[in-house]
Amino acid sequence: MEFTPTLLWSQSKENIEIEINLPNISSQNLKSEDNIFHFECLSLNKKYSICFELNKDINGHNISLQTDKKIIVLLNKKEDEKWDFLTKQKGLYKNNIRINWDKWDDSEAEDEDDVKNINIGGMGGMGGMGGGIEGMDMNMLQEMMGNMNKYQDREDGEDGEDGEDEEDGEGEGEGEE
């Protein structure tokens, strides 16, 4: 029987790092060429294997480091751009490929660009401050909020607008006087 290892991945501007955590790895075979990542090994007498097409182009792997509990593979990106996914086919190995948040490189430059591109056009409803979020109909928003309150009241056991519960036609928990 063949098993699929769990991969943790992270990225920097230039590289993708893939970490494979398995104890006592032996007979490993690692290939990363033509944008295909292929890894297989034995760990505790079990065969592990994973193979997939990478999301974007790489120059091959330039570092593979092995300890007694894990292998770390560094892939050199062809383009210095952010990858949203490790695999080209989204959802492939979704239970086995995870983001390594401890090593994730979140560049401040991207955050600054995102902040510059936000246009909220003012804060509607804030006493004297004009505007609102661009393209938003404030009347529609108020109507939606009112409907949410009605819905919440019904969930809490209060009567509907006509004084009767909609499910069985009788008020719930109310006695007659």
Characterise the protein shown here.
The protein has helices spanning 108-116, 138-155, and strands at residues 2-3, 7-11, 15-21, 25-33, 36-43, 46-53, 58-66, 70-77, 97-99, 122-126, 129-131. Strand 7 (58-66) and strand 8 (70-77) form a beta hairpin. The relative contact order is 0.14. The strands form three sheets. Strands 7-8-3-2-9 form a five-stranded mixed beta sheet, with no helix packed on it. A four-stranded mixed beta sheet has the order 1-6-5-4, with no helix packed on it. It folds into two domains: 2-106, Immunoglobulin-like; 122-155. The protein is built from two helices and eleven strands; from the N terminus they run βββββββββαββα.
Question: Keyphrases for this structure?
Answer:
alpha+beta, Immunoglobulin-like, 177 residues, 15% helix, four-stranded mixed beta sheet, 2 helices, 2 domains, five-stranded mixed beta sheet, elongated
Instruction: Classify the beta-strand content into a percent band.
Output: 35-45%
Q: Helical stretch count? A: 2
Strand arrangement, largest sheet? Answer: 7-8-3-2-9
Spans where pLDDT lies below 50 across 5 or more residues: 160-177
Largest sheet: 5 strands, mixed
In the CATH hierarchy, the architecture of the largest domain is Sandwich
Radius of gyration: 28 Å
Helix content: 10-25%
Q: What is the ordering of alpha helices and beta strands?
A: EEEEEEEEEHEEH
SS-derived structural category: alpha+beta
Summarize model confidence as the mean pLDDT. Answer: 77
Strand tally is: 11
**What oligomeric state do these chains adopt?**
single chain
